[in-house]
Design a protein that fits this description.
Number of helices of chain A: 11
Shape of chain A: extended
CATH class of the largest domain in chain A: Mainly Beta
CATH superfamily of the largest domain in chain A: Nucleic acid-binding proteins
Distance between the termini of chain B: 21 Å
Oligomer: heterodimer
Largest interface: A-B, 83 and 81 residues
Distance between the termini of chain A: 59 Å
Helix content of chain B: 55-70%
Largest sheet of chain A: 5 strands, mixed, barrel
CATH topology of the largest domain in chain A: OB fold (Dihydrolipoamide Acetyltransferase, E2P)
Number of domains of chain B: 2
Number of domains of chain A: 3
Largest sheet of chain B: none
Number of helices of chain B: 12
Structural class of chain B: mainly alpha
Strand content of chain B: under 5%
CATH class of the largest domain in chain B: Mainly Alpha
CATH architecture of the largest domain in chain A: Beta Barrel
Radius of gyration of chain A: 28 Å
CATH topology of the largest domain in chain B: Cyclin A, domain 1
Chain lengths: ~325, ~230
């Protein structure tokens, strides 16, 4: 059982879920120890003192809590965890595969302060950022971030986040002379995050591929053209100039939305496996399926039986004995 | 009668999986099945035959062609688990002919409208959008996508697909998945518009609650395979 996940759910739903779980899952050995520890008052905030907002949620979602408690052995099983590690993905620029959308927070109209805070919480070393050079000094250059090039696709253009690229992280373009002379203010730069000071909101980047994780090391860092800006950013800019456009409209008018292979593509992107289709119905748990019940197995048996019958009818078998 | 229908729906899902059908063709088959019995009298037709024909028809519509032989074999196996596969005799061929004729009947009853906008495509896009906004470690350790997909697949055991818009169903299963794991969408409180409103302009909280409630109800018919 995934303890952390269970605790997260309990923190949200509180003591009523805990008692429901106790009664529904009392026969389940995995839960007995978990439910014991989850109720210990010394661990974290006790469930009996919920936040105001959470309390309101609990009153009207008792149906959901009952559902959770009945299905808890399936929902919190470790087998649901995806095996793929959390590698940050390359920004999929091809608009043909699926509808690439502007960032969700832009539609939700989340205040800049919160976007900024969450950016500095979630950005990681090795993420690719794209920005414009704002000033060049003798120790390096500063750039103002426009968008991200990997991992989480966020709306950061208006947040005026600056990053420093120190001189030592700028590869030289000639044998002599200053590596920085190659660059000008206004240049669009693609770089890798090398250092983060989350508290002071300071970022250091590098133009060397070594700053990127292995699976992204093929991505070219340095000066890029405006055509190379990620599609999600261009869509975001379009949305800014036409802020009344809805998510639904943008999605449905996107070429990628009508791609016949869009479902397969996104299933893979999200790590959902259709060969072992997930379900919360007890009767549909794949461990209950026998291989003999599947179409191909049945067909083989049936064909074999028919083939034998044909041989017997023809009398050919006499010659085999 | 309703119970019977739901059990039949369950049969169909088993068949779908054992036939290797992908989610969209299964969804189409179930929608055809549910829609057919809305338009006709439940007693007038053999539900098992209708189920097999729905699967056959859906396979054609969604470009995942299935052989009638496989459909018959898997269905038969369900009803005679200990028996051998049907012999390829006249009875078998009659059954096969029935399916093909039934297909034409169903097409007529449904006025040849057998192509549907399913929630699946919408749900997948919503998941991608949400994934970018959530902290990547939060996302990694919480099976929101898989659970939402499971909920959507399971919803076809009931007739949700006929009563609600595709986008609304997609949002509702995502909403339930987030609720189940206690996931909070960052800065929800500070946002001008809630995430679920972003995904569908005409969606309201009561609609979400209705769908979630109906979906949870579907699971009460769930039983183990005997």
């Amino acid at each position: 059982m995934d303890r952390d996940l269970l605790r997260q759910s309990l923190n949200c739903h509180g003591s009523s879920l805990l008692s429901l779980l106790r009664s529904e899952q009392q026969d389940n050995p995995h839960f007995r120890s978990l439910l014991g520890s989850a109720a210990e008052p010394t661990r974290g905030p006790p469930p009996q003192q919920p936040l105001q907002g959470r309390k309101e949620k609990r009153v009207d979602n008792i149906e959901i809590q009952k559902f959770i408690s009945k299905k808890a052995d399936l929902l919190f099983a470790l087998s649901w965890k995806s095996d793929a590690p959390a590698t940050s993905e390359i920004n999929e620029d091809s608009e043909d595969h699926y509808a690439v959308m502007p960032p969700l927070e832009q539609f939700m109209e989340i205040p800049s302060m919160d976007r900024r805070e969450l950016f500095f919480r979630d950005i990681e070393r090795g993420d690719i950022v794209i920005g414009r050079i704002s000033s060049i000094r003798e120790f390096g250059f500063f750039m103002v971030l426009i968008c991200l090039g990997s991992g989480i696709m966020r709306d950061i253009a208006h947040l005026e986040i600056t990053a420093l690229c120190p001189l030592r992280d700028v590869p030289s373009h000639s044998n002599h002379g200053d590596p920085l002379s190659y660059y000008q203010t206004g240049d669009i730069i693609r770089a890798g995050i090398k250092d983060i000071d989350r508290y002071h909101e300071k970022l250091a980047v590098s133009l060397y591929s070594s700053s990127l994780p292995p699976h992204l090391s093929g991505i070219k860092l340095g000066v890029i053209s405006s055509e190379e800006l990620p599609l999600y950013y261009r869509r975001s800019v379009e949305l800014n100039s036409n802020s009344l456009e809805s998510y639904e409209n943008i999605m449905q008018s996107s070429l990628g939305f009508v791609n016949p292979g869009v479902v397969e593509f996104l299933l893979e992107k999200l790590g959902i496996d259709e060969s072992n289709p997930p379900s919360l119905m007890r009767g549909l748990q794949s461990k209950n399926f026998s291989e003999d019940d599947f179409a191909s197995a049945l067909r083989k048996k049936q064909s074999a039986s028919w083939a034998l019958k044909c041989i017997l009818i023809s009398g050919f078998h006499q010659y085999l004995l | 009668m309703r119970h019977f229908l739901l059990v039949e729906g369950t049969n169909e899902k088993w068949d779908g999986v054992k036939l290797g059908m992908r989610s969209i063709p299964i969804a189409t088959a179930c929608t055809i099945y549910h829609k057919f019995f809305c338009e006709t009298n439940l007693d007038a037709y053999d539900p098992y035959l209708i189920a097999m024909s729905s699967i056959y028809l859906a396979g054609k519509v969604e470009e995942q062609h299935l052989r009638t032989r496989d459909i018959i074999n898997v269905s038969n196996r369900y009803f005679n688990p200990s028996g051998e596969p049907l012999e390829l005799d006249s009875r078998f061929w009659e059954l096969r002919d029935s399916i093909v004729q039934c297909e034409l009947l169903m097409l007529r009853v449904l006025r040849f409208q057998v192509s549907f906008q399913h929630p699946h495509k919408y749900l997948l896009h919503y998941l991608v959008s949400l994934k970018n906004w959530l902290n990547r470690h939060s996302w990694q350790r919480t099976p929101v996508a898989v659970t939402a997909w499971a909920l959507l697949r399971d919803s076809y055991h009931g007739g949700l697909c006929l009563r609600f818009q595709a986008q609304h169903i997609a949002v509702a299963v995502l909403y339930l998945a987030l609720q189940v794991y206690g996931v909070e969408v960052p800065a929800e409180v500070e946002a001008e518009k809630p995430w679920w409103q972003v995904f569908s302009d005409d969606l309201t909280k009561p609609i979400i609650d209705n769908i979630v409630s109906d979906l949870i109800q579907i699971y009460t018919m769930d039983t183990e395979i005997p």
